[in-house]
Design brief:
about 160 residues; mainly beta; AOC barrel-like; eight-stranded antiparallel barrel; 1 helix; globular
Length: about 160
């Protein structure tokens, strides 16, 4: 019996050594960026109020985005929202960020929740140009009128 236990233990040890180390986690880079609106570019899209809820579809503006080589450039943001008189509701949209280097950027989709007039949310995106194959996942929240903060991770291709 002892010989069988020893043989089994040795077999398990050989299998673990042959398998090698556990694969490392996905390659990722932490990001942080700030967006500041260019007020002269705002287009309100379609806007109406029904039953005390403001509905907006296709609100568009350009933002200056700063946040390192992976996030600095110009963002075109398209927003939709449904917000009640207390400042509660939902918001969703897309962001196309063209890097200042002119070599690529991000196509992003995001959602957010309005609560007492302030909003926060999360999003995902795919790189294009020099960032092709990369993905971004982030949290976003308002920091003031026409300003927001983005924090998250950029994931290397194939992760």
């Amino acid at each position: 019996m002892n010989r069988r236990v020893i043989a089994f233990a040795l077999g398990c040890l050989v299998a673990l050594v042959a398998a090698g180390p556990v694969a490392a986690g996905p390659g990722r880079t932490a990001i942080a960026a700030q967006d500041s609106i260019r007020w002269d570019t705002v287009d309100w899209g379609t806007r109406w109020t029904a039953d005390g809820i403001e509905h907006v579809r296709g609100w568009t503006a350009l933002y200056d985005t700063t946040g390192g080589s992976l996030m600095t450039g110009t963002s075109r943001i398209v927003v939709n929202w449904n917000v009640d008189e207390e400042g509660d509701g939902t918001m969703w949209g897309t962001t196309d960020l063209a890097l200042a280097s002119g070599t690529g950027g991000w196509h992003e989709t995001w959602v957010a929740k309005w609560d007492d007039g302030a909003w926060s949310g999360w999003g995902v995106g795919r790189g294009f140009g020099s960032l092709a194959g990369m993905q971004v996942r982030f949290d976003v929240w308002a920091t003031g009128p026409g300003r927001d903060m983005v924090e998250g991770f950029v994931f290397d291709p194939g992760t």
